[in-house]
Give the backbone structure.
Amino acid sequence: MISCDWSSDVCSSDLTMNCIVERRNTTLKDIIKSIICHSILQKSLWGEALKSAAYILNRILIKPDIKTLYEFWTGKSSV
């Protein structure tokens, strides 16, 4: 069994990262709902909507002066 010392930095960084991931997942779900509701797509195509939403989010600037997530991961320009 894995235990966690809540006073350590590791757990606090894990909790922070969990919040970031949860926010990202919520954003993806909202985009998917919007894509499906505002188009003529069938609900069975939610996987394709997820791919499109993730593609879009990975190419949005996270801050005005910085690279996109795609550029961070690959080292290539997203254009």
Summary: The radius of gyration is 17 Å. The first helix runs from residue 9 to 37. Confidence is low (pLDDT under 50) at residues 1-6. The chain has three helices and no strands.
